[in-house]
Design brief:
Blueprint (H helix, E strand, L loop, with lengths): L9 E6 L3 E6 L9 E6 H9 L40 H16 L8 E5 L1 H13 L28 E7 L8 H5 L11 E5 L24 H11 L14 H14 L17 H4 L4 H13 L5 E5 L2 E4 L8 H11 L19 H19 L1 H11 L5 H15 L4 H11 L9 H8 L4 H9 L9 H19 L7 H16 L4 H17 L3 E13 L16 E5 L14 E10 L12 H6 L2 H15 L1
Antiparallel strand pairs: 1-2, 2-3, 3-5, 4-5, 6-7, 6-9, 7-8, 9-11, 10-11
Helix pairs in contact: 1-3, 8-10, 9-10, 10-11, 11-18, 12-18, 14-15, 16-17
The structure holds MYO-inositol-(1,3,4,5,6)-pentakisphosphate and adenosine-5'-triphosphate.
The site of adenosine-5'-triphosphate has 19 residues, from strand 1, strand 2, strand 3 and strand 5.
Function: Phosphorylates Ins(1,3,4,5,6)P5 at position 2 to form Ins(1,2,3,4,5,6)P6 (InsP6 or phytate).
Organism: Discostella pseudostelligera
Protein name: Inositol-pentakisphosphate 2-kinase
C-alpha cells in the first residue's frame, strides 16, 4: 500500500523521450527511495485539460490520499490474438517479467508497480515542472499536449496510470555488512553511473538496402555520430541541435505563459570515440577504454550521480574542482592523512579528472564481475537478423497480407511481443532440429518466441546465416566481388520474404522489436566505498549481486600518473540495474524506412572520399 503523498513531495529529476521521472522527497518510508515514471503525453493531456478541475492547493489541507493513489492493475493481454491500442505500463511490466527478466537475469531488473494518479495531482506536477524551467529546450515539444499524439487510452477525468520504481541512484546496504555488526558505512557518498550502451554489434543482414551498405563496416552508434556531425540527424537529448519551428513556438509559448527560464546550448557537435563493440567485448581493457571514451564525451550515454544529484552528463551543470575534491575526500579519507599519497589535497591536481578515473576504474571492475549482464544483453540484441531495412521490408509484406491495414498489423505485433513461446512445443523442436542444423538450433533457443511453420522462413534464415558467415570470413573488407555477393543474397532474401506467411512475418518482427528494445536500454551501476574492509583481512568476501542484495568487489585505486593510489584494495558494495526495458511499439515500423534512409549519406560520403583519393 502506498502511503499519503502530495504533489509538493515529488520533484522532477529526469526525462527520456517519452517519460518524465519524479523523485519522492517526503517522509513516507514506503515511498522513500522511489520515483514516479509518467508518460509525458498522458501527463500533458491530463494536465492541460484539468485546469478547471480545481487542482490541489497547498494552502488547504487537502492531500492526495492513500486511496486515490492505490495501485490499479488492469488485465494483461495473454493471448496472441488479443489486440491492444498501445503498449501501456502494465503490459510493459509484463513484458519485462516474462521476456526480459529471464533473458537478462532476474537480478538485473527490478519490476515496478503500477499506480493510479489523480488528474489534479498530475496537473500540479506538470505545471510546476514547466514553471521551474528544468526541462531542456529540445525536450519541450514532448511536454506540449497539442503537438503530441492524443492517447485515446487516457480518460482525463480519471487520471493516469504511472509506474512506481526504485530509485537506482541509491543503494540498499548489503545485508552482510549488518551481520558483521558494522552499521556506519565509511563513505557517505553513493556514486551512480547511468550508461546507455546502444547496439553492440555491426549489422550483417543481407536485407540491408544497397544504398545503406555503410552499415556493414561500422556500428550504428558510430554511423549516427557521423550523421549528427553532418547535420543529417538530430537527437532528442541535444539542446544544441537546430531547433524546428515547433520547438521555437513551444519555447516562446512557455517563456510567456510559464515564465520559464530556458537555457540554450549551441555548442558544436563533437563526435564520440566510444565504440559499443569495446564495451560488449568481454575484454577488461577494451571495456575500460569504452568507459574512458564515454566519460570523455558523455552525450546521452553516460551520466554520473552523487547521492542522487546528477553531477556529470547531459542535464547536469558540471561540478567545480572543489566539489570533486570534497567527494574524493569523503571516499578516501586516508588520503588526507598521508603526505606521500595526499592526492586530493594537491593544489594542481585535476580533481574532476581524478574523480572520473576512480569512477571508470570502479565501474570496469563491477562490470567485469557482472559480465553476464553485457553478454546476455548482446545475445538479445543479436536477435536483429533483419536490420531496420529488412524490418521495414517485412512490415510492408505483413501489411500486404493484412489487406493494407497498418493498424491491424500493429495490434498483432504489439500483442505478439509480449508473449513468449513454449520452448517444449513440437513446432519449436521441429524448427530447431530440422536438417540437424546447429545454427538454427542455437538461433531458436536464443529467441523467446516460437517459430511458426512456414517453408520460406528457414530458407530466409539460412540465407541470412550464410551471408553472415561470408561477412565474417571476408572480414568486411571491400573487394570487387563484394557488391555482387551482397546483391545476390539481397535479392534471394527478397524472394523468400515474398513467400512468408503472416505468422512468419510476425515472428521475424517480434525478434527485431525485442532486439530494438535491448539496443535502447540503460543501466545503472551504483556503488559505495567501504574503506574499513580490505582484501587482506578477509572479513568481507567479494560476491556477485543476487536478486535480494547487491554485490561486493575489491578495487585497487591507482590512476595513470600515480596521483591517486592506495596501499590496499578497498571493498565496494554495488548494484547493477537495467532500466527502460519497455517493448517498442510496432507503430515505429511505419516510418522505419525513412529513418534508415539517413544512412545513405554516410555511404555516399564514403564513395565521394574514395573518388577524391583516386583523382
Ligand atoms: O534509433 P536510435 O539508435 O537513435 O535510438 C533512439 C534513441 O536515440 P539515441 O541514439 O539513444 O540518442 C532515442 O533516445 P533520445 O530521445 O535521443 O534520448 C529514443 O530512445 C528512441 O526510442 P523511442 O522513439 O523513444 O522509442 C530510439 O529509437 P529506436 O531506435 O529505439 O527506434
Ligand atoms: N529507476 C530509476 N532510477 C533512477 N533514475 C531513473 C530510473 N529510471 C529512469 N531514471 C532516469 O530517468 C531518465 C529517463 O527515464 P527512461 O529512460 O525510462 O525514459 P524514456 O522516456 O522511456 O527514455 P527513452 O526515450 O530512452 O525511451 C533515465 O535516463 C534516468 O536518468
Amino acid at each position: 500500500m502506498i502511503g499519503e503523498a502530495d504533489p509538493d513531495e515529488w520533484s522532477y529529476v529526469a526525462e527520456g523521450g517519452k517519460h518524465a521521472l519524479f523523485r519522492y522527497r517526503g517522509a513516507d518510508i514506503g515511498l522513500s527511495g522511489h520515483l514516479l515514471r509518467i508518460a509525458k503525453n498522458k501527463l500533458a493531456r491530463v494536465s492541460t485539460t484539468c485546469d478547471s478541475c480545481g487542482g490541489w492547493d497547498s494552502t488547504t489541507s487537502t492531500k492526495i490520499s492513500t486511496t486515490s493513489m492505490i495501485p490499479k492493475i488492469p488485465a494483461i493481454p495473454v493471448r496472441a490474438d488479443t489486440t491492444i491500442a498501445s503498449i501501456d505500463d502494465t503490459a510493459s511490466q509484463e513484458f519485462q517479467r516474462q521476456i526480459i527478466q529471464p533473458l537478462l537475469c532476474h537480478r538485473y531488473i527490478d519490476l515496478a508497480r503500477t499506480v493510479h494518479l489523480p488528474a489534479y495531482f498530475c496537473a500540479q506536477l506538470y505545471h510546476r515542472t514547466l514553471a521551474n524551467g528544468l526541462i531542456p529546450p529540445s525536450r519541450l515539444p514532448s511536454w506540449k499536449s497539442d503537438v503530441i499524439n492524443h492517447d485515446t487510452t487516457v480518460d482525463i477525468n480519471e487520471g493516469v496510470n504511472a509506474l512506481l520504481l526504485r530509485d537506482h541512484t541509491h543503494i540498499s546496504r548489503h545485508r552482510r555488512l549488518s551481520s558483521l555488526g558494522n552499521t556506519t558505512p565509511s563513505s557517505s557518498v553513493v556514486l551512480s553511473v547511468e550508461i546507455k550502451p546502444k547496439a553492440g554489434y555491426i549489422s550483417s543482414s543481407p536485407l540491408v538496402l544497397p544504398a545503406n551498405r555503410c552499415k556493414y563496416y561500422q556500428t550504428r552508434y558510430s554511423l549516427q555520430q557521423e550523421l549528427m556531425q553532418m547535420g543529417q540527424i538530430h537527437k532528442g537529448w541535444r539542446s544544441s541541435r537546430s531547433r524546428t519551428r515547433v520547438d521555437e513556438a513551444c519555447e516562446q509559448d512557455y517563456q510567456s505563459t510559464e515564465g520559464s527560464n530556458i537555457m540554450h546550448d549551441e555548442a558544436a557537435f563533437i563526435p564520440s570515440n566510444y565504440s559499443p563493440l569495446d564495451l560488449f567485448s568481454n575484454n577488461t581493457l577494451r571495456m575500460q577504454k569504452a568507459l574512458v571514451d564515454l566519460s570523455c564525451n558523455m552525450q546521452n550515454n553516460f551520466r554520473v550521480w552523487c547521492n542522487g544529484n546528477q553531477i556529470f552528463g547531459v542535464g547536469a551543470s558540471p561540478p567545480t574542482d572543489s566539489d570533486c575534491q570534497i567527494i574524493l575526500q569523503d571516499i578516501f579519507p586516508s588520503f588526507g592523512d598521508d603526505s606521500n599519497n595526499d592526492a586530493v589535497n594537491r593544489p594542481n591536481l585535476d580533481s574532476k579528472a581524478t574523480l572520473l578515473d576512480v569512477i571508470v576504474a570502479t565501474v570496469t571492475k563491477i562490470l567485469d564481475k557482472e559480465s553476464s549482464l553485457l553478454s546476455n544483453m548482446l545475445s538479445v540484441q543479436q536477435l536483429d537478423w533483419l536490420d531496420g531495412d529488412g524490418a521495414a521490408i517485412i512490415y510492408e509484406r505483413l501489411v500486404h497480407l493484412c489487406n493494407g491495414s497498418n493498424s491491424e498489423v500493429e495490434a498483432l505485433l504489439d500483442a505478439a511481443v509480449l508473449i513468449p513461446g513454449d520452448a517444449f512445443s513440437s513446432t519449436w523442436k521441429e524448427f530447431a532440429t530440422s536438417d540437424n542444423n546447429d545454427w538454427r538450433s542455437k538461433h531458436s533457443t536464443s529467441s523467446p518466441y516460437m517459430a511458426p511453420k512456414c517453408n520460406a522462413l528457414p530458407q530466409l534464415l539460412d540465407e541470412i546465416h550464410h551471408f553472415q558467415s561470408y561477412l565474417r570470413e571476408q572480414q568486411r573488407r571491400y573487394d570487387s566481388s563484394f557488391d555482387e555477393v551482397c546483391d545476390n543474397s539481397h535479392f534471394k532474401c527478397i524472394e523468400f520474404v515474398n513467400k512468408l506467411s503472416k505468422d512468419a512475418c510476425i515472428y521475424l518482427l517480434q525478434n527485431w522489436l525485442l532486439s530494438l528494445s535491448l539496443c535502447d536500454v540503460s543501466f545503472f551501476v551504483t556503488f559505495r566505498f567501504l574503506n574499513e574492509f580490505n582484501a587482506v583481512d578477509g572479513a568481507l568476501k567479494d560476491v556477485r549481486q543476487t536478486c535480494d542484495h547487491g554485490g561486493i568487489v575489491y578495487c585497487s585505486m591507482q590512476n595513470n600518473n600515480g596521483e591517486l593510489s592506495t596501499r590496499r584494495d578497498i571493498a565496494v558494495e554495488y548494484e547493477v540495474k537495467v532500466i527502460d526495458c519497455d517493448p517498442k511499439p510496432a507503430k515505429k515500423l511505419r516510418d522505419r524506412r525513412e529513418v534508415e534512409n539517413a544512412f545513405r549519406f554516410v555511404s555516399k560520403k564514403r564513395i565521394d572520399d574514395v573518388d577524391e583519393q583516386v583523382s
